[in-house]
Predict the 3D structure of the following.
Amino acid sequence: MRVCDILKERDFVLSFEFFPPKKKGDDRAFWDTIEELKRWKPDFVSVTYGAGGSTHDKSIDLALALHNRGFCVVAHLTSISLSRKQVKETLDVLKKGGIENILALRGDMPQDESFVIPEDAFRYAYQLVEFIKAHYDFCVGVAGYPEGHIEAPSREKDIEYLKLKVDKGAEFVITQLFFDNRFFFEFLELAERAGIKVPIIPGIMPITSYNQIVRFTKLCGATIPEKLLSLIESLKDKPDELKKAGIEYTINQCRQLIDAGVRYLHFYTLNKSPATNIILEALGLER
Ligand SMILES: Cc1cc2nc3c(=O)[nH]c(=O)nc-3n(C[C@H](O)[C@H](O)[C@H](O)COP(=O)(O)OP(=O)(O)OC[C@H]3O[C@@H](n4cnc5c(N)ncnc54)[C@H](O)[C@@H]3O)c2cc1C
């Protein structure tokens, strides 16, 4: 199914993000996670794509494997490490395999100085969206940044570029993680003011580990609100208590979004089920 239709037709849309298991031995644990999360009947699942190039085939294989198991799949595709020919080949494989949805991304700029960006690579996601829409019939989503993308000169400028992605044909937006809903609500307002009318799906990262949260927020530039920071700092050496308090924080964050009328939740599962299960149970999102 096409995610753009799902977003139009269903009252509430729940989705999960997965990444290709890194080691061969992780495959079993991955499929166990899928089994454990299946009960929530996600409206779609998304599969990340390694911008650096190492996990391309795994991403495609995983997207197809999930599709073949009956999930509606959004395959992420990052353009920065691919030539146009490679982009086309990848899209052809996904299309042939029955995938109907792509999350069109640029990918992070490679930090490895020896990495050579292909000469004709799409340097911005809007160019990838434009290419996909010109040559294929995929439903296309893009990334959005409630606090502004880390390289963007301002949130307002970043929204202009988001609008460009939508103008080129993007039909939905999934956001970067955020821990302060005010950023998300402001983002919705800025998007509306900019004339962005497609659904904007909040990306939710369950808080389960101090190091993980600090690392992720450093990478993407998201803010850890003062209250959350002091909470996780006080429990830094008590991982079980931190997990409990972190999950409670995420439950409240989701509750506030739902209470404000948000109809979509996209969970960054990190290929684990326990935290997402607890959060969804607390929210009463059984279907
Ligand atoms: C939901 C979600 C899923 C993700 N999945 C993956 C994944 O699977 N694999 C992965 O490697 N990464 C993933 N990322 C991370 C993403 O690749 C990075 O954030 C990347 O740095 C930017 O990608 P983008 O598609 O948003 O790029 P773009 O939209 O191209 O934006 C990149 C930067 O360029 C600026 N910009 C955009 N257009 C223009 C223009 N016309 N002129 C000048 N500046 C411009 C933007 O403001 C921004 O600062 C994901 C992010 C999100 C939010």
Remarks:
- Residues 48-51, 76, 78, 103, 105-108, 124-126, 143, 149, 151-152, 158, 161, 164-165, 174, 176, 203 surround flavin-adenine dinucleotide (CB under 6 Å).
